[in-house]
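=== Per-residue structure ===
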Amino acid sequence: MTARFSQAIALLACFPIALAAEDGRTQFIREKVLDLFPEAVKIRRDLHRIPEPCLQETKTSQYIAAYLEKLGLEVHTGIAETGIKAVLRGAKPGPVVGIRADMDALPLNEDTGLTFTSEHPGFMHACGHDGHMTNVLISAKILSEMRERIAGTIVFIFQPCEEGNAEGKSGAHLMIEAGVLENPRIEAMLGLHVMPEFPVGSVALRPGPLMANVVFFEVVIKGKSSHGALPHQGIDAVHISALAIQQFQAIISRLKDPGERAVLSVGSIHGGTAANIISDRVVMRGTVRSFSFETENAIEKQMRNVLEGLALTYGMEFDFEFDRASQYVHNDPELTEIITDSFRETIGTQNVLSTEPMTVAEDFSAFSHTIPSVFFFLGTGTKEKLHGTDFSVDEEIFKTGPLLFCTGALRLLEHLADRN
């Protein structure tokens, strides 16, 4: 009887020990995040000073590579010009998870008043990529110190040219073509974007579409010039373009399912040479945002129908280009559930928010349509908006971002191992 009782006590004792080990890992990460906060601030400010545009992130890349090499990682540089891949192999074999940050800056003159303002006139980190890189670098440092406790591999990707476009391709597409997802083959990916709309210390995400398809279109209306006093002798391209814009808007309000989110905006229109001449040519440019390929294709078809109808009515000719620039960011539903649970356990349910899809875009979409991925918004709580000359991340995010990346990556490794 005594022996059985002792065995029961020993068996029960195993459970708190297992839980303590799990809690201990998270607690270690939490303490390291706080210990490394001053270092994170320094890294962010160093990177903020050297903003560089698409595929010219030379100083940024050198800074990142040097930091990663000191951690003892396998560092590969020059991927798609300036991209970097750093491989952390755990002590035990297992799945492979990627964590991605973007590196490029925007062509803006900074107006933040910071003491560590941009040293490159005409460029600044107005989209928070300095914060993205810092979060991933600190995550790499923490996880490298946990190598003996990791079953699997974590790959840290630093991507150029998220904002720009090189020969019709974004940095994410260029890195994928260069083989960044291979050797080792990455099975799932994590990424984030800072977002001032959400409170600092919070995150927001959702399964399925998170950020939009992006199309840039150009319409050229070709009419016939005549005297402004004799409009019947010409084909008025200005008048036709006005009709086209009105009918384009009806595509969104009357021809699209109201339950599907989409935006069609004409942002630029140019035509005419004088007040008393009927214009024979108008060029208009704009963008379409949607969250499914079916909706995107339907909008393209309807726009063409509008133009063909106007051509038939007024006798004009037209050119129409519908350039699909970026796919929507897709969060894998299964992995999003896993990551959401991990985040709730790490920072509290009240700090993990559900968000509606946003019509802004991110070329992380290329990764998300290639391998299962989860992308989330990290709240900055700042009044300044992204892409503004006064935007700057709240450095308090470095107490949350690395914590989420580290615990999330480890949770994904466990989930993939169990599934395999």
